[in-house]
Structures are given as C-alpha cells and as structure tokens.
Design brief:
This protein is an alpha+beta fold. It folds into 2 domains: about 110 residues, Phosphorylase Kinase, domain 1 (2-Layer Sandwich), CATH 3.30.200.20; about 120 residues, ATP-grasp fold, B domain (D-amino Acid Aminotransferase, Chain A, domain 1), CATH 3.30.470.20. It is built from 6 helices and 13 strands. Strands 8, 9, 10, 11, 12 and 13 form a 6-stranded antiparallel β-sheet that branches. A 5-stranded antiparallel β-sheet has the order 1-2-3-7-6. The radius of gyration is 18 Å and the shape is globular. Bound molecules: thymidine-5'-phosphate. The site of thymidine-5'-phosphate has 12 residues, from helix 2, strand 11 and strand 13.
C-alpha cells in the first residue's frame, strides 16, 4: 500500500485516512500497555486476533440494530471504519466484581453484582482516565444529557447481548469498556459504537474454571496471553480447531 496519512496513534491501534471521505483504516498493533504502568510490551499476534474478534462482535451487534463504526475487514490487521467524533468518555459495564471495583470498594473478585453497573471515565492519558459522573460529563460539555441517555441505553443492550453470546460459548462476561462517537447522517446526529471490543478491553472468564481469557493475563503476569486470546477466537468460531495457522497469512500452494 502507498503512503497513507496517519490520523491518530493510540496505545494498541493506529488510525489512517480511509479510501473514501468519512472513512478511516483502523490498524491493530501487538503493543500492550497497562494503566498506571510505564512502557509497552508486545503480545505476539494480538493485533491479528483482536481485528477478527472485534469484527465478529461488531457485526453481531449490528445484526441486532446497534449502530457501529465497523464497515469491513481489509486485511489481517486492518479494518475499514466510519470516521466519528469520539465522545471523550469511556463506559465500563460490570456484571461481576473485578479489577478496580474490587480494589476501590474492598470487594472480593468474582462476586456477582445484583444488577449491571455502569461507570464513566474521562478519556485523558495525562490524568490516567479518572472516574467521573454524569454530572461532570454534562457540566463540562463532553456529552449532552440526551447523548448520555442514549449511551446508557445502548451499553445495557450491548451488555445483555454480549453476556448471552459469551455464555453460549462457556465464557462469563465479567466487565468491559466501550467508546462511542457522534456521526452526522444528513441532518440527524447519531451515537454509534466505536473503538474495539476484544480481550484487551473485556474481562472474560471460563464459566467452569474461572480461568482468565483476557488482558488480565498480561496485566497480572499470568502467562499464556496469546493462547487465551486464541481460545476466545476459537470458541467464537473464528479460529479453526486446528489452531491459528489460518491467520498467519498467504501460503504457497504446491
Ligand atoms: P478496571 O476494573 O481496571 O476499571 O477495568 C474495567 C474494564 O475496563 C475491564 O474490562 C478492562 C477494561 N480496561 C481497559 O479497557 N483499559 C484499561 O487500561 C483497564 C485498566 C481496563
């Protein structure tokens, strides 16, 4: 591919200008960073797997009427997406106590929550994405009250659907993080799901063993990180039982 204009570089992804106006190319890197920890490591093959997993989940969500930025996969590490104006708020949905919720409130990891809990974080690398309330979001103009209502409604639907989808393949959806963007279609402003949904931003536990199949394996130095991501892809049916060989790229046929 010729020279492309880079629009944005994040921790795990790069965005390039797309082939048509209003589109971007989202490139998935193997880089892995951990909040409050300096530097980045590499999870070999992560970008390839996350490209596939995020595509799969965004397509399934699209089928139940959730508007997403996903247009189509371009190659092993890249997908074409709609360009949106990112709302600077991360939404975390929780079904089971884990991570920062366990630490902040002194709760035991693995305790099921009596109802799904929604949290908001202000997107700011300098500030380490601090937790905020709806009041902050509307007072500082990051989103309007109507937009927040729409974001919560979409997040709850996404949670119900994904929790069921993962339950069907023996995985508990403990929590996950979403990002949304604004898209103007003619005169209509729509809120659409953006970023990615992958083991980088979900907690996924095996239902029988509670084995972690997500980025916590990396954050907590548990090992077998790539294998865990592959296991999620395999159970989703996007990796053949034989292994990841179909993801390694073109092969010469005899
Ligand atoms: P937390 O319990 O650490 O607040 O994480 C909640 C969810 O957000 C979890 O599913 C993983 C996701 N997450 C990210 O996407 N990026 C991060 O840097 C962290 C720490 C969590």
């Amino acid at each position: 591919m010729g020279r492309r204009r880079q629009v944005y570089e994040g921790k795990a992804k790069v965005l390039f200008e797309g082939p048509e106006p209003g589109t971007l190319v989202q490139h998935f890197k193997d880089d892995a960073t951990v909040r409050h920890r300096r530097g980045a490591g590499i999870i070999t093959g992560k970008g390839v797997i996350n490209n596939r997993i995020s595509e799969h989940l965004m397509l399934r969500l699209g089928e139940i009427g959730i508007p997403t930025h996903f247009l189509r996969r371009l190659n092993m590490r890249e997908q074409l997406i709609r360009e949106v104006e990112i709302i600077p708020v991360e939404v975390v949905m929780r079904n089971v106590v884990a991570g920062s919720l366990a630490e902040r409130l002194g709760l035991a990891e693995g305790t099921p929550l009596p109802r799904s809990v929604v949290e908001f974080y202000y997107k700011s690398n300098e500030l380490n994405d601090p937790m905020v309330t709806e009041e902050h979001i509307t007072a500082f103009g990051w989103a309007t009250p109507q937009e927040i209502d729409e974001i919560i409604a979409l997040s709850l639907r996404i949670n119900d659907f994904l929790a069921g989808l993962f339950y069907g393949i023996g995985i508990r959806l403990v929590d996950f993080r979403l990002e949304f963007g604004r898209l103007w279609e003619n005169d209509l402003l729509r809120i659409i799901l953006a970023d990615e949904i992958s083991p980088d931003n979900c907690r996924l536990w095996d239902i029988d063993t509670n084995e972690k199949l997500d980025k916590d394996r990396y954050r907590r130095d548990l090992g077998a990180v790539e294998e865990a991501y592959q296991e999620v892809a395999r159970r989703l049916g996007i990796l053949p039982e034989s292994g990841p060989s179909d993801m390694k790229g073109p092969e010469v046929m005899q």
